[in-house]
Design brief:
alpha+beta; five-stranded antiparallel sheet; four-stranded antiparallel sheet; about 150 residues; single chain
Amino acid sequence: MHTVKYTNSGDFKCLEDLRDASMEITLVHMGREECKPYHAFSGTRDEYIIHFIISGSVFYSANGNTWPLGPGQMFLICPDEPVVYCADTNDPWTYAWVGFNGSNIDTVLKHCGFSKKHLVLPAPALEEYIDCFHDLFEHISLNFSNGLYR
């Protein structure tokens, strides 16, 4: 793997050779929803989506497995993979999601801990993710600077 060059000498700091570290991720959509009981989705998606469970309960099914999930967990939906998720009847979930694509997604997801066998993970820094969502919702205009921020 390529080494990044970092220079720190007095008044000069420089980080170089970052081309190989590019994540090449494109934000496709993002959002937040407070679900009603039985709110469900069944089908496939065209992009990767990570759902962050803020409160409540949801059931998620993919690859022949079903997980009961709650606050502080996240799950991955992969493109063209059939999935089902349904809000609990007594304690429906509130969640935030981010949908994305990119040329280096497999590597990025692997470093996050996701794989075809590990579609559900803890989200230990949930408040930081939610803060990030709030920041992104402040940059909703489709202009160049907001695009760079997102």
